[in-house]
């Protein structure tokens, strides 16, 4: 018997030194909308929503945190999207895959594209401005 019932994903949180820059990226690239955010006083937050129900919480980074902010703050080869570790990304599906990839290229975003052996499933991997891995695919949509 499962311990939790009715479980669903509520939100994903990303910590950043520049949450306004990150919010602009998610608005311009994936169409997130900014929604009312609570006021915490000691740090800034921006809450965003991707209709109908997926939420993203951008939280001002604690300057005393010892962990690196993301792949861009390391000397690792993970800066190249083709080296994105398998478990380091959030994935989205789009119905206009080819058009979406073209828009990433027009924005100067470095990408790595992959087509699965079925010849139908296409994926593109890239990073947000803080180096968080993103994947977008034509999952469950007609091949283009």
UniProtKB/TrEMBL annotation:
CDD domains: VOC_like (cd07245)
Domain VOC as annotated: residue spans: 8-139
Recorded superkingdom: Eukaryota
InterPro entries for the chain: Glyas_Bleomycin-R_OHBP_Dase, Glyas_Fos-R_dOase_dom, VOC_core
Region annotation (Disordered) ranges: 62-84
Pfam families on file: Glyoxalase
Protein name per its UniProtKB record: VOC domain-containing protein
């Amino acid at each position: 018997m499962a311990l939790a019932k009715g479980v669903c994903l509520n939100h994903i949180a990303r910590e950043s030194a520049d949450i306004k820059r990150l919010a602009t990226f998610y608005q311009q690239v994936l169409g997130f909308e900014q929604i009312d955010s609570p006021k915490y006083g000691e740090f800034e937050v921006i809450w965003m929503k991707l209709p109908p129900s997926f939420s993203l919480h951008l939280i001002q980074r604690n300057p005393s945190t010892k962990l690196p902010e993301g792949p861009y703050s390391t000397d690792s080869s993970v800066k190249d999207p083709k080296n994105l570790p398998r478990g380091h990304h959030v994935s989205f599906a789009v119905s206009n895959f080819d058009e979406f990839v073209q828009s990433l290229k027009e924005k100067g975003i470095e990408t790595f594209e992959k087509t699965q052996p079925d010849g139908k499933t296409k994926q593109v991997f890239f990073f947000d401005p803080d180096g968080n891995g993103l994947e977008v695919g034509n999952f469950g949509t007609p091949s283009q």
